[in-house]
Amino acid sequence: MQATRSSVISRDEGERVSLGGADVIFKIEAETTGGAFSICETTAEPGRLIPPHLHETEDEYSYVVEGRIGVLVGEDEHVAEAGSWVVKPRGIPHTYWNPGPDRARLIEIIAPAGFEGFFRVLSSLLAADGPPDIAAITETADRYHHHFRPELEQPLIEKHGLKLIGT
Predict the structure, then answer these.
(1) CATH architecture assignment, domain 16-164
(2) How many Å apart are CA 128 and CA 77, to the nearest integer?
(3) Lesser CB count within 10 Å: N end or C end of the chain?
(4) What is the pTM for the complete model shown?
């Protein structure tokens, strides 16, 4: 794969979508990398949990730029401080949360590219009036080979005093 164009993307550039307690800012997308990978910047409010999930087709690599995050990959729980990298291989359940007290900011590398489209659709589903449409969210996740692991949520919520994004 070869990059299709050169450019400079400033810290404040990129499309931003809200996931209700976390934001995703698209920095480098599939068309720029020939589909090899994409890069997003994510932010998470203190006390927010990304729903535990696994990917069938992508690996994720996260670099903690600001703050710190709690991470669960498989059965291993860690705290990643600013300057740390987190590897989340495909096929292994994982999640992260912001234990606080400050906002967390991460750079997410997704390989291969394509999954970033899920964030756009999820944002529009969460922006709809009323409670989140779980069936529509699950159907969208399935199209992206993304599977939620709800059995992992409650223990993390209780242990760390968290709230799911989007709620």
Answers:
(1) Sandwich (2.60)
(2) 33
(3) N
(4) 0.90
